[in-house]
Amino acid sequence: MYTMAEEKLGRVFYARQKWGVRIAMPEKHKRHRVRIEKITYETKDSRAFIFVPMDSEEGLFSYMPGQFFVLESQVTRPRTFVYDKSKGTMVGIGETATVVDKRAFSIVSSPAEHEYIELLLKSEEGLFVPYFLDEDKAGNICTLIGPQGKFMHNLLENKEKLIACWSSGSGIASTISLMQYTLDMGLDSKIIVFDSNRTEDDIIFYERIKRLVSESENFYAVFTDTKDNKIPISDHPRIFYRSGRFWVNGENPLEKYAGSNWRDYFNTICGSSSFINGRTRDKQGRSVKLGKGIEDHLLEAGIPQSRIEKDQFYLL
Ligand SMILES: Cc1cc2nc3c(=O)[nH]c(=O)nc-3n(C[C@H](O)[C@H](O)[C@H](O)COP(=O)(O)OP(=O)(O)OC[C@H]3O[C@@H](n4cnc5c(N)ncnc54)[C@H](O)[C@@H]3O)c2cc1C
């Protein structure tokens, strides 16, 4: 049986009955021509983009929180890149060229919003985003391919009521979609956001997270700054601040902020590999496991793998 909330989503859910279980059908990887309607400055290295459909919107809005689109666009950038061991990033050299390239970006908007798609682009000093952000793209035409992906699929399919969303940097995108969707659909899920950033200035969608928390008694946010030790004073009973990485010195943040039923929480983790599983690049640019990520800590705390969903953005 569909709930009333799901009925309202008519265009969003492609579902079928199979052995009595509802299965969400993935949308085909369609190409959508879209225009950049609005760009919002979020942090020094990230911007939020609103895309509106140019042609048919069929399939464009048939997505669920956690899914992503591949953004394909022209960018003008150096022809050649080399790996800079001291910086740990790719560095462009030589003359520039205009090329078509693409990257994946999680959907920020809620599936209940049928007018536009919002994506968040954060530069990781790579080959696409820095050059895309460099140009004033308002009014430009790009292509979105999707929606794609299964992140948060189990959470939504199982109608989880207790959810902990762990994010670092741009990993907050899907959490925003889930929170807004939860509000739009009148769902009663409890969501705790654990959001990790270098400093307070690096928190993406900071004001929006605080607004969303204030709009539902079921929403909580825990912000941690890993590089500066200034801990802001919270003026909201469901917004908390701390400093340093999560799960250090024997602390179990899930227990601390979720309370005695912390083992019942379903966990989503989104961001770089170092945040998820401690894998990063060594000086030669090779993948190495240097420490523990959120997934390691959750597993060590006894959370089963089946209660964890993760979305890795890149190796870093
Ligand atoms: C499913 C999914 C969802 C995503 N959602 C988002 C999102 O919502 N927002 C967002 O900002 N990003 C998201 N990403 C990541 C996004 O696709 C980009 O990778 C990211 O934005 C960085 O783009 P970039 O052009 O700066 O770096 P990229 O060119 O993508 O490179 C990423 C990093 O790897 C390094 N690198 C690249 N090539 C090499 C190489 N050959 N050797 C060594 N190092 C290398 C770069 O220097 C950079 O640090 C998502 C990724 C996936 C897979």
What is the helix tally?
A: 8
Number of domains: 2
Instruction: State the shape.
Output: globular
From the alpha carbons, calculate the radius of gyration and give it in angstroms. Answer: 20 Å
Mean pLDDT: 89
Order of helices and strands: HEEEEEEEHEHEHEHEEHEHEEHE
How can the largest sheet be summarized?
6 strands, antiparallel
Please give the share of residues in helix: 10-25%
Strand-pairing-aware structural class: alpha/beta
- CATH architecture grouping of the largest domain: 3-Layer(aba) Sandwich
CATH class of the largest domain: Alpha Beta
* Residue fraction in strands: 35-45%
- Which spans have pLDDT < 50 for at least 5 consecutive residues? 1-25
Q: Main sheet: which strands, in order across?
A: 6-5-8-3-4-7
Write out the distinct hetero groups bound to the structure.
flavin-adenine dinucleotide
- Distance from first to last alpha carbon: 43 Å
Please provide a written account of the structure.
- The protein is an alpha/beta fold and 316 residues long.
- The protein folds into 2 domains: 4-17 and 25-148, Beta Barrel (Elongation Factor Tu (Ef-tu), domain 3), CATH 2.40.30.10; 153-312, Nucleotide-binding domain of ferredoxin-NADP reductase (FNR) module (Rossmann fold).
- Helices cover 18% and strands 39% of the residues.
- It has helices spanning 4-8, 129-134, 153-157, 173-184, 206-215, 253-258, 273-277, 294-300, and strands at 15-18, 21-24, 30-43, 46-53, 68-84, 89-106, 117-122, 141-148, 162-168, 190-197, 219-225, 239-243, 266-271, 279-281, 287-289, 308-312.
- A 6-stranded antiparallel sheet has the order 6-5-8-3-4-7. Strands 12-11-10-9-13-16 form a 6-stranded parallel sheet, sandwiched between helices.
- Helix 4 (173-184) runs parallel beside helix 5 (206-215).
- The model is unreliable at 1-25 (pLDDT under 50).
- The structure holds flavin-adenine dinucleotide.
